[in-house]
Design brief:
With 370 residues, the chain is α/β, with parallel strands linked by helices. The protein has ten helices and 19 strands. A hairpin with a 4-residue loop joins strand 1 and strand 2. Its EC number is 6.3.5.5.
Length: 370
Amino acid sequence: MKQNRKLVLEDGTFFVGEAIGSDVDQSGEVVFNTGMTGYQEIITDPSYCGQIVTFTYPMIGNYGFNRDDYETVKPSIHGVVVKEANEYPSNFRNEETLHEFLSAHGIPGIQGVDTRKLTKHIRKEGSMKGAFTSVEEPIEAVVARLRDTSFSRNVVARVSTIKPYVVPGRGHRVVLVDFGMKHGILREFTKRHCHVTVVPYNTSAEEIRRLNPDGVLLSNGPGDPKDVQEAIEMVRTILEEYPTFGICLGHQLIALACGANTEKMKFGHRGSNHPVKHIESGSVYMTSQNHGYAVVESSLSHTQLEVTQYALNDGTVEGLAHLVYPCFSAQYHPESAPGPEDSNELFDEFIEMMEEAKGREKVLCQNVQI
């Protein structure tokens, strides 16, 4: 028998719909994603740890779920809100429905909600806390509980790997610092035959140095970058020694490590059709994005970083490059899972950067021998 469920926001706004997924009553930050496809990658993206995601596309689950498109083994999203959850997926790769997937992973959801109305409310008032409850529980009691709730600020620790592991390859040696890494990043490196060592978020610069990498990638991840202070210290050291590439949270950590500032956005960027302009070439790329914090452009003036790309929708910083060291970053997701592949070439730029650094090192060694 299908049960009704209620989604209550901390400002007292509420929505009643039909329960899907797990029957747990869970709270989280309510956000929205504008992607028309890629719901499986979104739900399994570790950067949604602690959040309840509203899908603006009216039907979710129409092609089901399969093992090939997971972005992490165990999803950490706190819930989903949809207009309609498809019960009969049509796809030859389908293995289970949206409801079955959410139930198996203990994730609550709700359907039958006016997601357009909810999205407009978030755009106007900003992202806010929310909770799934039974329809019988008084709104006032839920709101009081939400206002007294302080979510864990150490969300990166919840999604990062606990121990280092290796994805072997014959190419460049890359240390990938896992702040909540999407598997799409690993897929891009394995396509380029890299030897990747994935390490926890709190790995020190000395530990990375002992791995003797050709380059270091700082991955995406959830939450406020200022909460990961140990990583900021590590980044400050390694970018002076190794070619460094930052994606999403990694981009923000590079900015903080170089003396810039970050701030929380009103409702963030979450979707697969965000236009970004490259300043030098003038080209515009369509990108996949998922972040609630951004680099404050005015804070870059006293750093050795320059803006290389910006968002056409709101003018926020989308790319940085270091003026002295081989280091660059992107606020969006060039691994494109889900989303367009316009910016996939950033991985090739990172490979070229590592090759150039190895070439300079070889010349220095030859000069020393002479």
